[in-house]
Write a structure and sequence with these properties.
Radius of gyration: 22 Å
Helix content: 40-55%
Number of helices: 7
Order of helices and strands: HHHHEEEHHHEE
Low-confidence stretches: 101-110
Strand content: 15-25%
Protein backbone atom coordinates (compact mmCIF):
# COMPACT_ATOMS: atom_id res chain seq x y z
CA UNK A 1 0.00 0.00 0.00
CA UNK A 2 1.26 3.48 -0.75
CA UNK A 3 3.89 5.09 -2.95
CA UNK A 4 6.47 2.29 -2.71
CA UNK A 5 3.97 -0.29 -3.98
CA UNK A 6 2.69 2.03 -6.72
CA UNK A 7 6.15 2.72 -8.09
CA UNK A 8 7.07 -0.96 -7.92
CA UNK A 9 3.91 -1.84 -9.88
CA UNK A 10 3.92 0.87 -12.56
CA UNK A 11 5.66 0.65 -15.91
CA UNK A 12 6.12 4.40 -16.33
CA UNK A 13 4.88 7.78 -15.09
CA UNK A 14 2.84 10.02 -17.36
CA UNK A 15 4.92 13.18 -16.89
CA UNK A 16 8.47 13.59 -18.24
CA UNK A 17 10.43 14.67 -15.15
CA UNK A 18 8.79 12.13 -12.83
CA UNK A 19 9.27 9.37 -15.40
CA UNK A 20 12.97 10.23 -15.67
CA UNK A 21 13.24 10.06 -11.86
CA UNK A 22 11.52 6.66 -11.89
CA UNK A 23 14.23 5.39 -14.24
CA UNK A 24 16.93 6.62 -11.82
CA UNK A 25 15.04 5.01 -8.89
CA UNK A 26 15.05 1.68 -10.71
CA UNK A 27 18.67 1.85 -11.86
CA UNK A 28 19.89 -0.71 -9.31
CA UNK A 29 16.78 -2.86 -8.88
CA UNK A 30 13.44 -3.17 -10.65
CA UNK A 31 11.59 -3.63 -7.34
CA UNK A 32 12.57 -1.75 -4.20
CA UNK A 33 11.61 -3.57 -0.99
CA UNK A 34 13.18 -1.50 1.77
CA UNK A 35 10.80 0.77 3.69
CA UNK A 36 13.47 3.46 3.47
CA UNK A 37 12.59 3.89 -0.23
CA UNK A 38 9.18 5.31 0.79
CA UNK A 39 10.58 8.84 1.06
CA UNK A 40 12.15 8.75 -2.40
CA UNK A 41 8.95 7.26 -3.84
CA UNK A 42 6.95 10.08 -2.23
CA UNK A 43 9.26 12.66 -3.79
CA UNK A 44 8.80 11.11 -7.24
CA UNK A 45 5.01 11.13 -6.79
CA UNK A 46 5.14 14.73 -5.57
CA UNK A 47 7.10 15.68 -8.69
CA UNK A 48 4.44 13.93 -10.80
CA UNK A 49 1.70 15.82 -8.91
CA UNK A 50 3.34 19.16 -9.55
CA UNK A 51 3.90 18.43 -13.23
CA UNK A 52 0.31 17.19 -13.63
CA UNK A 53 -1.12 20.18 -11.77
CA UNK A 54 0.74 22.51 -14.14
CA UNK A 55 -0.67 20.61 -17.13
CA UNK A 56 -4.21 20.88 -15.77
CA UNK A 57 -3.89 24.55 -14.84
CA UNK A 58 -2.76 25.32 -18.37
CA UNK A 59 -5.60 23.33 -19.96
CA UNK A 60 -8.34 25.40 -21.58
CA UNK A 61 -10.85 22.62 -20.90
CA UNK A 62 -10.24 22.74 -17.14
CA UNK A 63 -10.10 26.52 -16.79
CA UNK A 64 -13.25 27.15 -18.83
CA UNK A 65 -16.23 28.64 -17.01
CA UNK A 66 -18.68 26.40 -18.96
CA UNK A 67 -17.97 23.35 -16.81
CA UNK A 68 -19.69 24.54 -13.63
CA UNK A 69 -23.01 22.84 -12.95
CA UNK A 70 -25.07 24.23 -10.06
CA UNK A 71 -26.36 21.37 -7.94
CA UNK A 72 -27.59 20.49 -4.49
CA UNK A 73 -26.40 17.43 -2.62
CA UNK A 74 -28.39 14.25 -3.11
CA UNK A 75 -26.76 12.57 -0.12
CA UNK A 76 -25.66 14.19 3.13
CA UNK A 77 -22.77 11.82 3.82
CA UNK A 78 -19.76 10.66 1.84
CA UNK A 79 -16.55 8.74 2.28
CA UNK A 80 -13.48 9.12 0.10
CA UNK A 81 -10.21 7.23 -0.03
CA UNK A 82 -7.21 8.65 -1.84
CA UNK A 83 -3.55 7.79 -2.10
CA UNK A 84 -1.40 10.78 -1.27
CA UNK A 85 2.38 11.12 -1.10
CA UNK A 86 2.21 10.49 2.66
CA UNK A 87 0.05 7.38 2.30
CA UNK A 88 -3.63 6.46 2.22
CA UNK A 89 -6.01 9.17 3.43
CA UNK A 90 -9.58 8.33 4.38
CA UNK A 91 -12.07 11.20 4.57
CA UNK A 92 -15.59 11.00 5.98
CA UNK A 93 -17.76 14.03 5.34
CA UNK A 94 -21.28 14.76 6.42
CA UNK A 95 -23.42 17.88 6.46
CA UNK A 96 -26.59 18.73 8.30
CA UNK A 97 -29.93 19.89 6.87
CA UNK A 98 -28.63 23.47 6.65
CA UNK A 99 -26.34 22.61 3.71
CA UNK A 100 -26.59 26.03 1.98
CA UNK A 101 -25.30 27.67 5.16
CA UNK A 102 -22.14 25.61 4.91
CA UNK A 103 -22.58 23.78 8.20
CA UNK A 104 -20.84 20.45 8.30
CA UNK A 105 -18.18 18.33 9.88
CA UNK A 106 -15.04 16.70 8.67
CA UNK A 107 -13.26 13.59 9.91
CA UNK A 108 -9.92 12.54 8.43
CA UNK A 109 -8.41 9.24 9.45
CA UNK A 110 -4.90 8.60 8.19
CA UNK A 111 -3.50 5.97 10.53
CA UNK A 112 -3.90 2.76 8.53
CA UNK A 113 -0.15 2.17 8.91
CA UNK A 114 -0.21 1.45 12.66
CA UNK A 115 0.12 -2.32 12.18
CA UNK A 116 3.14 -1.92 9.89
CA UNK A 117 4.77 0.56 12.30
CA UNK A 118 4.18 -1.80 15.24
CA UNK A 119 5.71 -4.71 13.34
CA UNK A 120 8.71 -2.57 12.43
CA UNK A 121 9.25 -1.61 16.08
CA UNK A 122 8.90 -5.27 17.05
CA UNK A 123 11.56 -6.26 14.49
CA UNK A 124 13.90 -3.59 15.91
CA UNK A 125 13.32 -4.90 19.43
CA UNK A 126 14.16 -8.45 18.33
CA UNK A 127 17.39 -7.30 16.72
CA UNK A 128 18.62 -4.64 19.15
CA UNK A 129 17.37 -5.60 22.63
CA UNK A 130 20.07 -7.89 23.97
CA UNK A 131 20.57 -9.26 27.48
CA UNK A 132 17.35 -7.58 28.61
CA UNK A 133 18.91 -4.16 28.10
CA UNK A 134 17.86 -1.17 26.01
CA UNK A 135 20.46 0.96 24.25
CA UNK A 136 20.12 4.63 23.32
CA UNK A 137 20.80 3.95 19.61
CA UNK A 138 17.66 1.84 19.49
CA UNK A 139 15.56 5.03 19.80
CA UNK A 140 17.02 6.24 16.49
CA UNK A 141 16.05 2.94 14.82
CA UNK A 142 12.50 3.16 16.18
CA UNK A 143 12.23 6.75 14.98
CA UNK A 144 13.45 5.76 11.50
CA UNK A 145 10.80 3.04 11.20
CA UNK A 146 8.01 5.37 12.33
CA UNK A 147 9.13 8.04 9.86
CA UNK A 148 8.94 5.50 7.02
CA UNK A 149 5.22 5.03 7.58
CA UNK A 150 4.19 8.37 9.02
CA UNK A 151 6.01 11.16 7.22
CA UNK A 152 3.76 13.73 8.87
CA UNK A 153 6.07 13.33 11.85
CA UNK A 154 8.96 14.27 9.57
CA UNK A 155 7.18 17.42 8.51
CA UNK A 156 6.08 18.26 12.04
CA UNK A 157 9.47 17.84 13.73
CA UNK A 158 11.89 18.93 10.97
CA UNK A 159 14.77 17.17 12.70
CA UNK A 160 15.92 13.59 12.73
CA UNK A 161 16.87 12.42 16.20
CA UNK A 162 14.57 14.88 17.90
CA UNK A 163 11.34 12.85 18.08
CA UNK A 164 10.16 12.67 21.71
CA UNK A 165 10.04 9.01 22.69
CA UNK A 166 9.39 6.83 25.74
CA UNK A 167 10.31 3.12 25.49
CA UNK A 168 9.81 0.57 28.24
CA UNK A 169 11.33 -2.91 28.36
CA UNK A 170 8.70 -5.10 30.02
CA UNK A 171 9.09 -8.76 30.96
CA UNK A 172 6.47 -11.47 30.41
CA UNK A 173 5.00 -10.76 33.85
CA UNK A 174 4.47 -7.08 33.10
CA UNK A 175 7.35 -5.78 35.24
CA UNK A 176 9.20 -2.78 33.78
CA UNK A 177 12.88 -3.75 33.53
CA UNK A 178 14.21 -0.56 31.97
CA UNK A 179 13.00 2.74 30.56
CA UNK A 180 14.56 4.95 27.88
CA UNK A 181 13.21 8.40 27.22
CA UNK A 182 14.12 11.16 24.83
CA UNK A 183 12.46 14.56 25.06
CA UNK A 184 12.31 16.91 22.12
CA UNK A 185 14.94 19.62 22.15
CA UNK A 186 13.03 21.67 19.60
Amino acid sequence: MGPLARLNACSHIATPLADAELKVWRAKRRVQTSSFYYHWARLIETLYGLERAQQLLESADITSTDILVPNRPTCREGVGVIEAPRGTLIHHYWVDARWPGGEGQFDCRHRPHNLAMNRGVQAIARKYVKAKKLKEGMLNRVEAVIRCYDPCLSCATHAVGQMPMHVELVDAGGQVLQTLQRDSTL
